[in-house]
Every structure is written in structure tokens, then in C-alpha cells.
Amino acid sequence: MLQEGAHGKWTVSSSDESTEENSDSEKPSTSSLLDTARGRTSGPQYPCSEARKAAHKRKASPLKLSDKRISTEIPPAEKQRTSQEGLGWCVSSSDEEPEDEEKHGHKETLKEEESDVPKEHPLNLCKDVELSENQKAEEYDEAPSEAQDTWDLLNRGNPFRFFLTKVTGIEQRYNSGALHIKDILSPLFGTLISSAQFNYCIDVAWLVRQYPQEFRKKPLLIVHGEKRESKAELLAQARPYENISFCQAKLDIAFGTHHTKMMLLLYEEGLRVVIHTSNLIAEDWHQKTQGIWLSPLYPRLPQGTDGSAGESETNFKSDLISYLMAYNSPTLQEWIDLIQEHDLSETRVYLLGSTPGRYQGSDKEKWGHLRLRKLLKEHASSIPAQESWPVVGQFSSIGSVGADGSKWLCSEFQESLVAAGSNVTTLLKCDVPIHLVYPTVNNVRQSLEGYPAGGSLPYSIQTAQKQLWLHSYFNKWSAEISGRSHAMPHIKTYMRPSPDFQKIAWFLVTSANLSKAAWGALEKNGTQLMIRSYELGVLFLPSAFGLGKGYFRVRGKMLSENNDSATYFPVPYDLPPEQYGSK
């Protein structure tokens, strides 16, 4: 949906992440399985949000401008969805706080409107009209790179091990150095013994097809947060596959989700950890901007070695084990044991996770934005004139952050983002410039996916109208530097650039959107941190990469043939961000 105000236009819709603070009563029903049996396959056959289904339907049956019915009638499948007359792309009560949920009740859905058809760019909606569903499935199931290309990618010296996903429809040079899921699961990366996939939205059949044929019957554990009907639907998807087992993440606090996206890959040669931002569905690996951190291949420790051995200077091993232990699941004990048996000492990033709970004392600093605050205080270098170094946050979903900045964004959250060095005094609220990068309506309309891309960019209209102050911080999505200006971002990144945007003090890629459910919110006069959801990301700090200057330089292009890749960090979008409403 389009909203316009003093600070420009922004998109509102719902998506996979829109349930970050929703009750599971809004999750899909198993009726979709019955629909499949009856031959109705207009929507995706996996648990996901209503907006994802609507976006899928639009891709499958886009409106044609030549169809005279557009201006006179609503398509039959949409006639009952009239709760938001005149709003076009409608919204969910996605990242609402619980009190908002109680007020708004039912989740609003999507309604096709004449105004949805972008007259200037009709191809955005109609480009797939001649493709059958099978053809589009083949298009999504992209083949991995040539074997030599993938091998070169692993061995040509990417010290950060930060990658983007491949995007169909952009110049090939911008996919050089990018990865598809089939690349990650390729035999070139290791001879797979077993794997674990942690994620939110999962298409089991599609996931199985991403594994090489020789690995498709290897043990696969899927860690998820589905409940009730959605859980039954997920399990039903896996019935044809005897090698698949499940671990249900406990979500004891209302409106939380299992939003973490991670792969654990056990090979004959060792172990690998992959932390990324993509759901395990075809659309997320097709024409969106996504991020991946790919660990080194961790060798097995000599037999009889103490489990505390093989730790990195960033304490990645113990932090990963702590994160897995937070699930309190016997199913994950096998993976905890395996991690203890491997040498993770080559890791140069810090793990930053969120797990549901209410934390006090020293436990407050284990998770969420207080974990980021602790890491920056202990390991980031002090920044001279730091009040002039802005904070940039980029995300695909926005939750309720309060009636003004003092409620969360410009108070506790900003205090965590601006922490740097142990002797830094706390700045007054909003002293540091904040730039929030979130796509505009035109970004979505002109994207490779067209308007259906809005299904992955949730911002509830009810929430937006209560925090109009927030929109003065908004900046457009632009990624000419990586050739991805038209590939809508599902990646989430946060960083601290210099005033001239030529350097960054740190960089974080994570599953966490801009919401208190993901990052946590202080309670009881700041003595308790409450987090609703599971999230996971990795923090890049110059000190971990041997940079005495205390910052990464930002290179002028993603490809680094002529740059010292050890000091130039590949920020995937354009800096400085361009504010809404600017030319």
C-alpha cells in the first residue's frame, strides 16, 4: 500500500516477517493441503503469510493492461476481500505490539485494485504471463555456477566471507562472487554427511531439490517455529522424505517467531556454518537482495581434545553453542556435540543472536541490542568526534517503535548502536544522525518482481500512522554499486559509517528487522530485557581482521580486483543513503 506524508512515500504490506509479533492463529491453515488435493494450486504449498500467498498469486496470474475487466470488476478470487476498500496493497497487523493486536483484531488482507497496475511499467506485472507454473519453477530452481567458478570463489581471498545471493535478471558481472543455495550445498564445498536448516518459511520439496542428487537422502534436520495447523502442514510436506526430522523452537512469549536463518553442514572433511537472510523458498533466492556469511571449513579436532579447544578470538564457538543451548532441545544436542568436536579458531566474526525470554543481570547482555552494545564497547575502537558518525539501519520489516523516538529508537536502541570503546560517554538522544533504508513505492513498482515484491516488505498501516515521526529518517533503496537497485532487499544490515561515508566502524548482517520483538526492549526501569523472537547475525569488527586503524574502508564497487580486499568492506548498497522525497 502507498502512504504519503511530509517526508515522501513508503510501502506498507505484509510478508513472511509480518508475523514477528502476530499470534499463530494467523498462520496458514492446513486447508491449503486440501486445496492441493482438489487441484487448486494458485498459492504456494508451504506455510507462509497471506501476503506471500497473494504475491505468489499475482505472479501466477498477473493482470493484463489489455483486459477491459480491470476497471470494472474485482477478480473473482479477491471479491470477498473488501475490508480495506480503496487501499490497493493492503497490510497486516504485522509488527504490532500486543496492545495493537488486541485493538485491531483480524489480520487485513490484500485487495487487487485498478491503481495497482503500474501504467508506466506494465511489464513488471505481466512479464511472467506466458510462463507456466512449471516453467517458473524451473526458472527459480537455478543451476549452480560452473564448478571452477565456485572453487575460485572459495579460494581467491575473500577475508570477510560475506556474499550476496545471485539475482536473475541483472548483469552477469554483478553475480560474480555471489552465491545461490545450490552453490552452498555443492559437493565442492564438502562431502555432506548431514545438515541442519534453521529458518522461518520453508518449502520442503524445493529445499530438497537444492541439494545435489547424491546428498538428498542424507539426514536433514529442520528447525522451525510452526505451531498447530502450520506445523501439521510442514510435517505433511516432509512425509515423502524419510531422512528429514524436525525440531520445533519453543516460543513461549506471545507474538514471537523463529526468524533465524542458518545452515549447519557436516562434511567428511569438517563442519561449516552458514548464517544468511533468505527463507527456504524459491522466491527468496531468485530476484531479491540477500546476504550470506559463509564460515571457513572447520576441521575436526584430534580425538581426545578438550571440547573448549578450537575457540576463536571472537568466542564464536562458545557463543554458537550457547545459542543452540537456548533452544533447550535434546534434538540439537547432537549438533552441539559436533561443534565441540571441531576447530572454529579461524572465525573472525562475532555472533549476535536473539532468543525469546526475559533477561536480568548479566544475562541481559547475552542477546539482542544489549549484546551488540557489549560487543561494541569491548571490541570496537573509540571514534573521534563520534557524534558526527551516523548510524545506518537497513531492513525489510518495521514494527511498532513508539509514539516518539524517546520510546525506543533514539533511546535504548540508539545507545546500543553508538557504543564504541569502553570509555565512551553516553550521547544525548538523537545526537547521532540516523539513516533508515527501506524501499519506496517506486522502488517496489520498478523492481524485477514488480508489486509482488511488496509481499516481503511488511509495514502495518496501523503502526505507520502511529509513528509518523519515524518517516523523517527514511531513505530510498539504491544499490547501483552491486547492480541490485531493482532487486528488493530482504537482507538486513546495520553499520556505523564516517561522516563522508568512506569508512565504517563496524558492519552487521542479520535476520533482525527494525522491531522490539527482534532486538528486545527494556522493562522494569531498565533492569530487564524482553525478547520475543529468535534472530541471528554476524558482526564484522576491524579489530578481528587485524586493522589497527579501527575502521573498514568502503570500496567504490562490489568487485575488488584493484582494491586491497583486506581493508575494503563490500557494503551491498549505495552510500550515502538518499532521503525520501529528494531528487
TrEMBL record:
<feature type="active site" description="Proton donor/acceptor">
    <location>
        <position position="490"/>
    </location>
</feature>
<feature type="compositionally biased region" description="Basic and acidic residues">
    <location>
        <begin position="101"/>
        <end position="121"/>
    </location>
</feature>
<dbReference type="GO" id="GO:0000012">
    <property type="term" value="P:single strand break repair"/>
</dbReference>
<dbReference type="GO" id="GO:0004527">
    <property type="term" value="F:exonuclease activity"/>
</dbReference>
<dbReference type="GO" id="GO:0017005">
    <property type="term" value="F:3'-tyrosyl-DNA phosphodiesterase activity"/>
</dbReference>
<dbReference type="GO" id="GO:0005634">
    <property type="term" value="C:nucleus"/>
</dbReference>
<dbReference type="Pfam" id="PF06087">
    <property type="entry name" value="Tyr-DNA_phospho"/>
</dbReference>
<feature type="region of interest" description="Disordered">
    <location>
        <begin position="1"/>
        <end position="121"/>
    </location>
</feature>
<dbReference type="GO" id="GO:0003690">
    <property type="term" value="F:double-stranded DNA binding"/>
</dbReference>
<protein>
    <recommendedName>
        <fullName>Tyrosyl-DNA phosphodiesterase 1</fullName>
    </recommendedName>
</protein>
<comment type="similarity">
    <text>Belongs to the tyrosyl-DNA phosphodiesterase family.</text>
</comment>
<keyword id="KW-0677">Repeat</keyword>
<keyword id="KW-0963">Cytoplasm</keyword>
<dbReference type="GO" id="GO:0003697">
    <property type="term" value="F:single-stranded DNA binding"/>
</dbReference>
<keyword id="KW-0539">Nucleus</keyword>
<feature type="active site" description="Nucleophile">
    <location>
        <position position="259"/>
    </location>
</feature>
<feature type="binding site">
    <location>
        <position position="492"/>
    </location>
    <ligand>
        <name>substrate</name>
    </ligand>
</feature>
<dbReference type="InterPro" id="IPR010347">
    <property type="entry name" value="Tdp1"/>
</dbReference>
<feature type="compositionally biased region" description="Basic and acidic residues">
    <location>
        <begin position="65"/>
        <end position="82"/>
    </location>
</feature>
<comment type="subunit">
    <text>Monomer.</text>
</comment>
<keyword id="KW-0597">Phosphoprotein</keyword>
<keyword id="KW-0269">Exonuclease</keyword>
<feature type="binding site">
    <location>
        <position position="261"/>
    </location>
    <ligand>
        <name>substrate</name>
    </ligand>
</feature>
<feature type="site" description="Interaction with DNA">
    <location>
        <position position="515"/>
    </location>
</feature>
<keyword id="KW-0540">Nuclease</keyword>
<dbReference type="GO" id="GO:0005737">
    <property type="term" value="C:cytoplasm"/>
</dbReference>
<keyword id="KW-0227">DNA damage</keyword>
<keyword id="KW-0234">DNA repair</keyword>
<keyword id="KW-0378">Hydrolase</keyword>
<comment type="function">
    <text>DNA repair enzyme that can remove a variety of covalent adducts from DNA through hydrolysis of a 3'-phosphodiester bond, giving rise to DNA with a free 3' phosphate. Catalyzes the hydrolysis of dead-end complexes between DNA and the topoisomerase I active site tyrosine residue. Hydrolyzes 3'-phosphoglycolates on protruding 3' ends on DNA double-strand breaks due to DNA damage by radiation and free radicals. Acts on blunt-ended double-strand DNA breaks and on single-stranded DNA.</text>
</comment>
